[in-house]
């Protein structure tokens, strides 16, 4: 039986492929390297900095596995906002689905819950909807939630 983290890593790779992310980004994640995409410089992937590492560690403590970081700029009420979107998946899909390992009586039930969760999220990703932890650097606030992305000039970009 695969452990939860192995399943989550495979899920993240499947999401990245579904979103059409570059193979070099997917391969880097498989090696344990997280890149950040900057839509203002689409031909360049940035390495994460100390601030990113701090947020990633915090998200890991909350049960999230970050697979990519996406910068975006938005305007709300005509005020520009610099956003950092930490794209992530749960490290334990069963817990995220509302189950405790002790509640699951058989492997088939466990696999069914995990597969349903993954399928639902892959289908959402096909329409550009993915889960992220968003840090609004301009306003100093952050929150988890779904964001919408698309590919612009061959690069993943946030559209909402």
Report on the architecture of this protein.
The chain is an alpha+beta fold and 160 residues long. The chain has one domain. It has five helices and seven strands; from the N terminus they run ααββαββααβββ. The chain has helices spanning 4-18, 23-30, 50-61, 93-96, 107-126, and strands spanning 35-37, 45-47, 64-76, 79-90, 129-136, 141-152, 155-158. The protein has a seven-stranded mixed sheet, sandwiched between helices. The chain is globular. The chain starts with a helix and ends with a strand. The model has no long low-confidence stretch (mean pLDDT 90).
Summarize the structure.
This protein is α+β, with helices and mostly antiparallel strands and 160 residues long.
SSE order and pairing:
Elements: H1 4-18, H2 23-30, E1 35-37, E2 45-47, H3 50-61, E3 64-76, E4 79-90, H4 93-96, H5 107-126, E5 129-136, E6 141-152, E7 155-158
Parallel strand pairs: 1-3
Antiparallel strand pairs: 1-2, 3-4, 4-5, 5-6, 6-7
Helix pairs in contact: 1-2, 1-5
Shape: globular
Low-pLDDT ranges: none
> Major sheet: order of its strands?
2-1-3-4-5-6-7
Please tally the helical runs, counting DSSP H or I stretches of 4 or more residues: 5
Query: By helix and strand content, what is the structural category?
Result: alpha+beta
Q: Give the ordered list of helices and strands.
A: HHEEHEEHHEEE
Please indicate the count of domains: 1
The helix fraction, in percent, is 25-40%
Radius of gyration: 16 Å
Q: Mean pLDDT, nearest integer?
A: 90
Care to count the β-strands?
7
How widely separated are the two ends? 38 Å
Name the beta content range.
25-35%
Report the sheet with the most strands, covering strand number, pairing sense and barrel closure: 7 strands, mixed
